[in-house]
């Protein structure tokens, strides 16, 4: 791991070297869950809660399409507080930034100055996050930055992650992958050019078990639908 790239800037540790308090940008998927684990393992921060964007229209986690009822079960299994940022659909960038700024101000009011992200190598996404956080007097932590995604995917599986593909971009990956378990068989079946962690937006996941949870979350597959150019596999 590129240790210099973990933090958005130098001087991230608290006074006398104490780890800062942080919220995790929580998508309900494997990358944010593993980022939480790695932040704790490396002693980068004390996790104070999770921050999640939710569609007001669909009552689901943004982009991943996961029901908020399942989000609540994840939060309970994490034993953490959750700040939900409710967004309209469609959502303009202005509204997104306004509501995210309100949420960041709320967690900052709790004495938190850091947000953990599961980003891996998209420079433009990281630069955007850092710019918005800096404007609020906050900083980002990127514990997975520049990890090899093939090795990272297998490490997640080896650590007991149970996850399923809940969102597919059909322009990048066949819709038949929607709902499949994120396991060794899936990694072997992914076409060439598809990132093993879906880092280029090929797919998004919902994680229902792993060492970050106090207990697994029982889920059952629902219908697969296509909406707004994406394929969503519902889980109940």
What does this entry look like structurally?
The chain is of the alpha/beta class and 236 residues long. The chain folds into two domains: 139 residues, HUPs (Rossmann fold, 3-Layer(aba) Sandwich); 77 residues, no CATH class. 29% of the residues lie in helices and 24% in strands. The protein contains six helices and ten strands. The strands form two sheets. Strands 1, 2, 3, 4, 5 and 6 form a six-stranded mixed beta sheet that branches. Strands 8-7-10-9 form a four-stranded antiparallel beta sheet, with no helix packed on it. A hairpin with a 4-residue loop joins strand 2 and strand 3. The radius of gyration is 17 Å and the shape is globular. The termini are far apart. The relative contact order is 0.17.
Short synopsis of the structure:
By secondary structure, the protein is α/β, with parallel strands linked by helices. The protein has helices at residues 30-41, 68-78, 93-108, 123-135, 149-158, 184-189; strands at residues 21-25, 46-55, 60-61, 81-87, 114-116, 139-141, 162-168, 203-209, 221-227, 230-235.
């Amino acid at each position: 791991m590129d240790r210099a790239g973990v933090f958005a800037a130098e001087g991230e540790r608290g006074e006398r070297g104490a780890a800062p308090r942080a919220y995790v940008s929580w998508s309900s998927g494997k990358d944010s869950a593993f980022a939480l684990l790695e932040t704790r393992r490396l002693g980068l921060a004390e996790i104070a809660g999770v921050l999640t964007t939710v569609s007001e229209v669909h009552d689901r986690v943004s982009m991943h399409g996961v029901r908020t009822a399942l989000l609540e079960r994840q939060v309970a299994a994490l034993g953490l507080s959750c700040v939900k940022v409710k967004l309209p659909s469609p959502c303009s960038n202005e509204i997104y930034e306004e509501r995210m700024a309100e949420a960041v101000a709320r967690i900052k009011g709790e004495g938190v100055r850091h947000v953990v992200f599961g980003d891996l190598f998209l420079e433009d996404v990281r630069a955007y996050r850092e710019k918005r956080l800096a404007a609020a007097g906050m900083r980002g932590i990127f514990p997975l930055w520049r990890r090899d995604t093939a090795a990272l995917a297998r490490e997640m599986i080896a650590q007991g992650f149970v996850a399923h593909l809940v969102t597919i971009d059909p322009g990048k990956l066949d819709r038949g992958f929607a709902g499949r378990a994120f396991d060794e068989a899936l990694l072997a079946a992914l076409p060439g050019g598809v990132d093993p962690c879906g880092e280029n937006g090929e797919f998004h996941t919902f994680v229902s078990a792993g060492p970050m949870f106090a207990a697994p979350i029982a889920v059952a597959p629902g219908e697969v639908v296509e909406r707004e150019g994406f394929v969503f596999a519902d889980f109940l």
